[in-house]
Amino acid sequence: MTCALAASLVVMAARFAGEMGEPVVRDLESLPDQLGELAATDDEAFGRLLAAWKLPADEAGRRSAITAAALGACAVPLGICEAGARVAEQAELVAVHGKAHLVGEAVTAAYLADASVRSAARLVRLNAVHARSTNPVEEAAAWVVRTGRVVTVLETLDR
Description:
- The chain is mainly α.
- Helix content is 82%, strand content 0%.
- The protein has 6 helices and no strands.
- It has helices at residues 2-15, 22-28, 31-54, 62-97, 103-131, 135-155.
- It is elongated.
């Protein structure tokens, strides 16, 4: 929901940014709804992981069920990571190229997006342990780097 709030804030700022903001609005205006739908699938994915954990320890296929469910539980937070990076990058465009009085909103949105990416990346790390896979962790880490770069740029922005 933090990422959805960040997207909404960027869209609001972009609407006041004139022609420059039109592509930002087109890119992000449906993202809050998409993130809401994604969040709804999180319960199902984590439920499958809980069910796999409850399988008897000696049941054939338990390990593979846990692995598959854990990888599935990584999908939602990875989606949040990707969306958050997109929001942060669009916030940077609005902050740098939009109207000066919109910088505060854009920077706030980038901070919120960065926080949602970092939080989601943590969930990926927690779930990926049970999958015994580093691939989702590496993907999440790359999204954290991208949003971190945006925050660094915006913290040095002199507008």
